[in-house]
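HUMAN: You are asked to prepare a plain-text protein record giving the amino acid sequence and the backbone structure tokens, both parts labelled.

ASSISTANT:
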Amino acid sequence: MKLQNPATPAPQDAEARRAIRPTICYPIDTLPQPDLAGIDVGRAGAEKIGEVLVPPRDARCVAVPAGGFFRITCTEGSQVGDLNLWNATDLKEHFFSGKTRALHGTHLSTGDRLWSRLPYLRPMATIIADTLDWYGFDAFGGSVHDVIGTRCDPYTGRLLSGSDYHYCCHSNLTRALADHTGMSLTEAEPLVHDVLNVFMCTGFTADTHQYFMKASPVRPGDYLEFMAEIDLIVGLSACPGGDCGDEHTSDKAACHPLLIEVFHNPAFTHEVPPVNAYDRSHGR
């Protein structure tokens, strides 16, 4: 973090430098927008083809076909989840939270898309419904469904506390992907990646600008729903932090299951987005 008492004296034009207006790094005026009205029509005719209940402090994976829909629902109590997405036919293509954040902002909601990593860089899923969209940003600067944080993991736990905790989201997702694909843990772990923190309420403190979490506003019955842009493996961990109002990477918090439901409408026509058209010559 920036020092509260900097060692370098401010120059005479310090305030003028600070007053320079910011520029949006990635204007999205030219970014193709999802046809939410058309998607809603397709969703209305979709039938449920599968579901999986993600146990507390654990993770599960489920396949979702391109043009299908998946809904993540809070079932029994306030609970956040860490979401990973993989291309079902090429696991090297997975969700890229950093570029998604750069394009859509720190927190996502209806109409935002989850983009894949380089060199693919295409939409993997589009958010089509969010029962927490009323929350907005609170007085602390907090909001829900962030792409700021990573995922709780045993390596940071070892670094900060010297202890090992095996039921954090990184480990949960590693086990889930290994179980779903038949890979070993060693093969699966490098494919686990930074997440969409579903239902989690987060932001940055006004004084030290540190990443914070607070108790999620999610309640049983709330959900976040997506359309799959490509054939997906969806991985979700029910975070050991529960509602993340206190701490994670431990067994302290009360935790609850999360439900993933999959829907499909065979009559719904969906055009799979192509991978990014950049020629990958990199100046050579």
